[in-house]
């Protein structure tokens, strides 16, 4: 098959998820274009970089030109989400309706809202009451309605909080691993004895790529492969073993600025803080059974993440 005849997969958003996905798709032999508002800094081998503002109809149409599959991994600053994400959705959905490309959307658990600890499956009702939760639920309804109406071919892949190599802005990211390695104060939120699901960023990428490869999954929500939930206290114990020193915790029982999370972020995050005061348990059994994929074990995820942060903090060796 010539390079010109290889179907093009376009990834919108060059954050940790989009970058990991672009690498995963390239590794699977696809032609890949990675798109962000400014030229993506990430230079993934075999991936074309492209600059476009996909919150505009013109930018989205240019970004997805010639694509067979489009992956929506766009995110924006937390305080801008309710304003900007609907614009992105309208532009991207209109673009794939025009071109006929399949659309794979990276989604969150926000539409479920507070569950009082109920295990979240794809059958869990959407009961969000927060602004961002309702916004996400409305967008998802519109995606699925477009699919049902035959205007577009759409599938949604939901992830729990990210963790893994390259993940900085997560509650299990830049506020945890550098401090654990250096003996500083590790951020903890809410009740650290509650189980909390985290999805390995590499499983996010592999899961989305799998959905992109199999149209049989279209028209519904899937939970991306996610290891069984454990408590934050247990995660800290695992990290402690890996770094070889005690973890010094700072537990925030209510949202306030700490480390990489400034006041603007925490003010916006306050309505979502319930995620740390009740269990957050995501079940991905349906995806695992349907596609024959298993999540990365949590200990392997943490090992890889510690090693990535260690390399980041020490820099290149001379």
What string, H for helix and E for strand, traces the elements in order? EHEEHEHEHEEHEEEHEEHEHHH
Residue share in β-strands:
15-25%
Mean pLDDT, to the nearest integer, reads 95
CATH architecture of the largest domain: 3-Layer(aba) Sandwich
Q: How can the largest sheet be summarized? A: 7 strands, parallel
Residues in helix, %:
25-40%
- Strand element count: 13
Computed CA radius of gyration, to the nearest angstrom: 19 Å
Pfam family, one: Epimerase
Protein name: NAD-dependent epimerase/dehydratase family protein
InterPro entries: Epimerase_deHydtase, NAD(P)-bd_dom_sf, NAD(P)-dependent_oxidoreduct
Domain NAD-dependent epimerase/dehydratase: 11-216
Structure description:
Residues 11-216 form the NAD-dependent epimerase/dehydratase domain. InterPro entries: Epimerase_deHydtase, NAD(P)-bd_dom_sf, NAD(P)-dependent_oxidoreduct. The chain has 318 residues and is an alpha/beta fold. Helix content is 37%, strand content 18%. The strands form 4 sheets. It has a 7-stranded parallel sheet with strand order 3-2-1-4-5-6-11, sandwiched between helices. Strand 5 (102-107), helix 4 (131-148) and strand 6 form a beta-alpha-beta unit. Helix 1 (16-27) crosses helix 6 (201-213) and helix 3 (81-99) runs parallel beside helix 4. It is globular and about 55 Å long. It starts with 7 loop residues before the first strand and ends with a helix. 43% of the residues are buried.
